[in-house]
Amino acid sequence: MRWFNLFWQQLANGLIVGSTYSLIALGYTLIFGVLGIINMAHGQIFIFGSLVGLALMTSTDLPLPVAFVVAIVVSAILGIILEYTALRPLRKKNVPHLASLISTIGFATLVEEGMHKLFGADSRSFPEVFGGKVFDLGIMQIRGVDLLIIGISLVLMFVLHFWITRTKLGKAIRATAENSDTASILGINTNLVIVLTVMIASGLGGIAGMMIGMTYSALIPSMGLTLGFKGLAVLILGGVGSIPGAMVCGVLLGVIEVFAVAYGDSSYRDAVAFGLIILILLIRPQGLFGSKA
Amino acid sequence: MNKKRFSQLLATCLLGTTILAGCGGGASTSTPAPAGGGEAQQSAGGEITAKIGVVSFLSGTGAAYGEAQKAGLELALAELNEANKGKLKIELQMEDSGGKKESAINAVNKLINQDNVVAIIGPTLSGEMFAAGPVANEAETPIFGISNTAEGINDIGEYVFRNSLPESIAIPTAMKAAQEKKGFKKAAFIYAANDDFSVSGFKTMKATAEQMGLENLGEATFSNGDVDFSAQLTKIKELNPDVLLVSALYKEGSLVVKKARELGITATIIGGNGFNNPQVFEIAGDAAEGLIVATPFSPEKQDEKVQTFVKAFEAKYGKKPDQFAAQAYDGLYIIAQSLLAAGKADRNALRDQLAQLKDFQGVSGKLSFDEKRTPVGEAVVVEVKGGKFVPF
Questions:
Q1: Over 90: is that where the pLDDT of A286 sits?
Q2: Could you identify which of A33, A44, B131, B296 might form a hypothetical disulfide with B101, taking C-beta atoms 3.0 to 4.6 angstroms apart as the criterion?
Q3: Does domain B167-295 have CATH number 3.50.50.60?
Q4: Which of B16, B221, B235 is the closest to A102 by Cβ?
Q5: pTM assigned to the model
């Protein structure tokens, strides 16, 4: 039953790739949920953050958990800079939402060029943290690091979902998302909520970036753009603003892509994945998990 | 809409559009080239001043190639201008293509029409050369590839040269040498399907494998810029080949090799020319051990000329030169030699001299051009051992 084993192995490959997509999409979803805009700089921000973490890790023997913290902090700081330079000034002037789309693209370009100046354009290899230990689960073999990635993604999703739906701060975020003027009248400091959301979304990206480095054994500055687009696709597919949607559809996109390569032609990897997205959107324009506006 | 707000919006839009134009390698101009072309300034002392354009992959995903080329060219430039004082003064005008075809075309146009160069070195990728070569050929300006190894580069036109050994020579040399030692029979292939260079390398590999009587178990592809190769390599692992042939640029290639070893593929891996870069060891680490490639240049070669070059390079840049630096270095030497023979900085005179090149002794071996300007030289087969290339 070789094809059977092969199927499970490819499914595992898809799950791993997909869980990194999910983590990226969470960042988009959070910001979209609250601000109603798509942050085109998300990809670049988290790759920048994780590159800083990686660079410190390789040059100063920083332990991995500390490097994770560095990546989260740097990404979050970049998120705050984005909010103060590219989002808030536009929001104050009440310009159309499209303007902030463009200003975040501008910010993305600056961050990407900054990466090239600081780290060069080359890929940086990620040190093997767990010695690449492979677990044999009978039907599939999976690296320890990949199990960890799937685990972290799941935990993060549940924590985030719980936090948004059950805590007071989550309530404030949801209120701001619903209607920021009303929320503000009701005594919620909406500016603070927005800053917090951008920070959390970017910090989450920092985690995603480090895990991407671990899965692919390398980080490349240009990954921000390519993986950012994957995250965007997941956002649309899952229904904008939906956290479970981002999680499930990220994994779905990863699995579809891997199967397209495994049982089709790798040149059609993106074509198949995005073709399916178009198809799904034709049937459910609000996304798989989105609610009708 | 008030004026202030409008101008702010405009500014944000402009900022945004830089993402589209960001990597452009200079504007193209339509100024016609002066007849004869070339900046032919002959000073009273008979010194020829020649301005040579360089189009290289200096930023973006393959910047390591461009940086190596730039280093090799600058070292050669300093040595040549010192040695030929009073006879020939070369100036280099560097342009960055970012590895993009359209930028390479723009850069070539600018160099020919605006900077009036006598010849162009580059561009780095074969795909870029296929795009920009015809432009230079049309303008009757010699264009000299120092890293284009794909088939058909010289067929672009009479003004197109290269000193980079085509993969059609290098790859079969590596494959035959490896089979003699390892005796493999079943082959699988993986290559970047959206890159001219990698596709050309793959075709050579496939043809050679057929010639050698290897069984073709399967072919897998990916795209430049991909980072996940698990699906393709899982498939290949199931095929259980004894030899895996990888045709890719070093960045994706190193990740493929690393992932292949992680998945437990134990086949001998033979790579194309893209692997001739020290970055391979950085990215693939231990997984690179045993990788076999053919290269026109090895810094370990016990040859006086090679060792002098390696020492000078190390003194200047603090690292060992790779194939790209070596071929860039040789390329400028060949052009300088031909310029001196031509006696003037003239595009056509230079072309005629280049076409006659015979037995040039460079750091990347002996080189001649045949009647179709295809380089004739020999390749050295190397294997990765202990984190560096050693003769196989």
A1: no
A2: B131
A3: no
A4: B16
A5: 0.76
